[in-house]
Amino acid sequence: MSENGGRMLGLAVVSSQPLLWGLPLGSVSEDEPRVRLRIVEPGELAARWAGALPRRLAERVDSSGQLTLVVDADDEHGVRVEASGFGVALIASEGIEVLGVPGREIAWHRLLFAQVLPIAAALQGLEPLHASAVEVDGVVLALVGASGAGKSTLALHMSRAGAARLSDDVLVVDAGRGGVVAHPGPGLANVDACELTRLGLAPGEVILGRDDKVQVSFSPLPRALRLDAICFLLRERVADGGVQRLTSPDPRLLLAAGFVPHLDWAQRSIDHLEACERIARSVICFRAEVNPAELSAVTADRVRKRVVGALCQERGRAPA
Amino acid sequence: MASDDAHGSAPLARAELLEATVRIPEQVAHRRIGAEVVVLNVRRGVYHGLNTTAAQMLEALTAAPTVRAAVLGLVRDLGQPEEVIEADVLDMCVGLIERGLVEIERRNE
To answer: How far apart are alpha carbons A11 and A1 in whole angstroms?
Structure first.
């Protein structure tokens, strides 16, 4: 198999075909998490899955009741992900191999980024969070929230104000004993169309597609960084002028921040619990109120000033 | 009071529970997250949060040879009347057992 691929989401992805929007693969060391991605014929994938006794982990239906996404698992055979129009993938139980039957190019990559590779990362002991991440004035900040909370929008606004983006919508961290490290994600963001129209494209950004959101390419930071802060985005009143530092992180918010809650392996649940413990110990947590009636630029500016400002002050530096 | 894997044993009387040993079964994991201890029953896939006092009680229960010994230790540490601590600890034991988070070994087992 010719060595294509790239780095993203904490994984060195070695692929039989080019992997778009990833960082260069370079040399892959023996001890780093890696995935071998093989594009195969549907028959080969079906043969590998034959004999599985699958349990349904997740499914999504559209407004007409049609299944659009199905995630099934079998302890021996792995995890099978199928999304109509996007493709089918079979992730081996240890997460080190993926067989893929791609759909259309951009759709296939979106399936990889939003489902397949986060699952592979989790099976290898990394921790995918439902978060976008930016680096501002040397502070690496994860914006955590449910779908529609405003993660991508706030990250987009912060990037226009000078922040560098690390990842969009899924942030994979390595919550090891030495601290929490955040890994770059693919350079593909799903952005609200109105916000993008308001802000326009930045140099180097390209619109790749549209559905309910706009898919925009961007250049993620090229290396893993220590995660300094997490800001939970909430659609509720938050004290302290809308951004509150948490002296003690709410375990419910951390536990709910997992990106792959549907993976039901016992060890996976324990890994997630341990990751949350380590994150709570070493990452400063905030809550921020996101009010849909308020301009996102205002919210982003408040979050940046309060969160980044606080950490810069503690480090004895003035924020830019 | 039955654990996840109970084979239909009769509920324990409070006196009997006081002389029993509490242990955390293999399918339960617990970690401190912030000010709470989160206890996970892996088989049920449910997370439970214990506040500081409850976490202290769980630690005492699993470290002591009997529930009664745990109660006496907590009376010392918390400075509360024994009858209050005993009632709270026994109530907590019942709750933890019902949720499959601890198992009980009766004294004569």
So the answer is: 18
Closest CA to A84 of A70, A73, A98: A70
Let me know if A287 is exposed, middle or buried by CB neighbors in 10 A (0-12, 13-18, 19+).
buried
pTM over 0.90: yes
CA distance linking residue A94 with residue A237, whole number of Å: 42
- Tokens 């996101």 found at: A290
* DSSP track, A153-189: HHHHHHHHTTPEEEESS-EEEEEETTEEEEPP--SEE
Torsion of CA A266, A272, A278, A281, to 10 degrees: -120
In the block, tokens 């502070």 appear at A139
* ipTM for the whole complex: 0.86
Chain B residue with the nearest C-alpha to that of A246: B34
Q: What is the side-by-side order of every strand in the sheet holding A284-289?
A: A164-167, A131-136, A139-144, A229-234, A284-289, A243-246
Q: What's the 3-state SS for B45-71?
A: CEEEEECHHHHHHHHHHHHCCCHHHHH
Question: Residue for token digits 């021996």?
Answer: A76
Minimum distance, in Å, between the CA of residue B12 and any CA atom of chain A: 30
pLDDT tens digit sequence for A57-98: 999 999 999 999 999 999 999 999 999 999 999 999 999 999
- The rounded distance, in Å, linking the Cα atoms of A239 and A54 is 46
B52, closest residue in chain A (CA to CA): A248
Q: Tens digits of per-residue pLDDT, A213-229?
A: 999 999 999 999 999 99
Q: How many CB pairs under 8 A join A and B?
A: 45
The pair phi, psi for residue A98, each rounded to 5°, is -130, 130
Q: Do B33 and A266 touch (CB under 8 A)?
A: no
Question: Judging by DSSP bridges, how do beta strands A243-246 and A284-289 pair with one another?
Answer: antiparallel
Residues 6+ away with beta carbon under 8 Å from A17: A4, A39
> Cβ contact (<8 Å) for A249 and B49?
no
Q: Which residue, chain included where needed, has tokens 């009769």?
A: B10
Contacts of A153 (CB under 8 A, 6+ apart): A191, A192, A195, A296, A300
